[in-house]
Amino acid sequence: MHFLQSDKFEQNREVIILISIILGILVFATVLFFIWGKIKPTNQLKELKMRTNSWWVMASMFVLATLLHPVVSFVAFGLLSFAAMRELASISKNVRDDDRRVIIWCYIAIPIQYFFAYKGWFNIFIIFIPVIMHVWIPFMLVIRGITTEIGRSMGVLPTQMMLTIFSLSHLAYLLSLPEIPGFNAGGRGLLLYVVFLTEINDVFQFVWGKLLGRHKIIEKISPNKTWEGFIGGILSTAALAYFLRFLTPLTEIESVLIGLTIACSGFVGDVIVSAIKRDIGLKDTGTLIPGHGGILDRIDSLSLTAPIFFYIVYNLHYA
Amino acid sequence: MRSAFLAFLYSILMRGFLRIIVGVKYINKEVISKEKQFIIVSNHNSHLDTMALMSSLTFRQLSKTHPIAAGDYFGDSVAKSFITRLFTNAILIRRTKDGNSENPIDMMSRALSEGRSLILFPEGSRGEPEKMQEFKKGIGILLQKHPDIKYIPVYMRGMGKVLPKGEKLLVPFDTYVLFGQPSTTKAAEISEIVQEVEGKIMALRATFIQPVEETKD
Q1: ipTM of the complex
Q2: What pairs with residue B153 in β-bridges?
């Protein structure tokens, strides 16, 4: 395996360190929840187990991408966008039945957007969905000729594309960023950094909320979110962002500020998706069957942290 | 040869396509793999229904399971009938009496006596998405004749949105195939059996979270 050759290992050292940390956490969590489940099974444990399982999938994806080829990551992220878009379109009541033929355009946009990301065509990458598809989708709706409540569909479909396709494609674009001299981890380092911090921030907010949580932030939308959890979460995430900055070209101050930004935007992404789910009558899952988690529950925070992180880093070090 | 062809088609190609592209989610699928002979009874909204159910079967079950299809729809030309038989093992029946073809119930009953399994859509035709039509009584007659054969209630949700009646363009949406517990019937009368089966499918339907708009009617 080419990966085990020493120069390859040197090139990937930072990424391998973080992957080892992640695998360590995952093994620890899996064993812990397994034992906990044997002693005292609860509903909350089921949620935790589900989260751990999706973490395993995420982690394997990164390991595979490191070992094999970046194209694997592009396809995997494309499929993730597709599944998320499909889930959102399926549960949304704000889309009319007649719109199914227009929704196919939302799916067609996915490979195109990821192709731009793969090629690293920055200018078309950033305008394709917010500008071109924002015009194309309403135009396709108009061509269908049914104007009753057409404004709703014109608003909802592009928004869903922004949340699921545009935002996540920034994770893939990180892999196409040019190399900076003296910074080894490259795009994969940045990708791991933002995904790991986003997910661990969810965990931190959850844990701090359980330990100290008293004062609710927005009870109507997300009853488990408390000020104590939120503040504990952003501080822990900022600290971790500082220690993991070897994955990025960021300076010390930049990394702390980015940690705070990721924590706050992760929270916002989380409550936006929660609110969408509430609107449909779903509480803790993006699927219509109780007890089966959906894709949206996993990528809710990422859908905001990914583009925000991308543009900050891009403008600081790549522009 | 033929069973290998069917296994390849459904267990690999079709299952992959349905799960990854269409977004079909099978729930409680494991109940089906233990059964030797069964009648799958399900609601019907789309041509995809048969594909989704066939894809949930094991290698061994595939070649011995026959969907019941409308002969007046799928068998109205030689080509259509050939394709239907080749790809699905279907038993084609006439939905309307015309005197010279065999009684559909007898055809199904004979298949059951030979140890084969059936996939049956008692609504008769594909209705509107997420709305169920009244069950035809054929399932009652069959289960009365074969009281020792288990039936498996299945409720599918979303198929009518992916590929509705009269549409040719397939649009992926999340779709659920929910399996109920296999059981033999306890009722004796035909109408009671039909009611029992219908009730079980309605109960499966009720486990779904109803989006706000649908609960209004």
Answers
A1: 0.86
A2: B41
Is A32 near chain B, with CB under 8 Å? no
Residues 6+ apart with CB under 8 A from A59: A19, A22, A23, A26
The CATH code of the domain at B2-208 is 3.40.1130.10
Which residue type, as a one-letter code, is found at position A51? R
CA distances from A258 to A26, A186, A261 (A): 25, 17, 5
Contact yes or no for B151/B197 (Cβ under 8 A): yes
Query: Is B206 in the A-facing interface, judged by CB distances under 8 Å?
Result: no
User: Cα separations (Å) of A73 from A55, A65, A268?
Assistant: 16, 5, 26
Residues whose CB falls within 8 Å of the CB of residue B38, separated by 6 or more in sequence, listed in order: B32, B117, B149, B150, B151, B152, B182
Give the span between the Cα atoms of A123 and A244, in whole angstroms. Answer: 30
CB atoms within 10 A of CB B114: 9
Note whether A90 contacts B: Cβ–Cβ < 8 A: yes
Distance of CA B114 to the CA centre of its chain: 19
Q: Using the beta-carbon criterion (under 8 Å), do B211 and A83 form an inter-chain contact?
A: no
Q: Which residue of A has its CA nearest to B129?
A: A97
pTM (2 decimals)?
Answer: 0.88
Whether A235 shows a pLDDT value over 90: the answer reads yes
Residue linked to tokens 């509107």: B128
Alpha carbon distance A89, A100 (integer Å): 9
Helices (H), B67-151: 71-74, 78-88, 104-113, 138-145
Half-sphere exposure of B206 (CA within 13 A, CB side): 6
DSSP, collapsed to helix, strand or coil, labels residue A32 as helix
Q: In sequence order, what E strands does chain B have?
A: 24-27, 38-42, 65-70, 91-93, 117-120, 150-157, 175-179
DSSP single-letter state for residue A77 = H
Q: What is the pLDDT of residues A64-74, one digit of tens each?
A: 766 677 788 89
Any A CB within 8 A of B178 CB: yes
pLDDT tens column, B158-169: 888 899 888 889
Chain length of chain B: 217
What are the residue ranges spanned by the domains of chain B? 2-208
Interchain CB distance below 8 Å, B25 and A287: yes
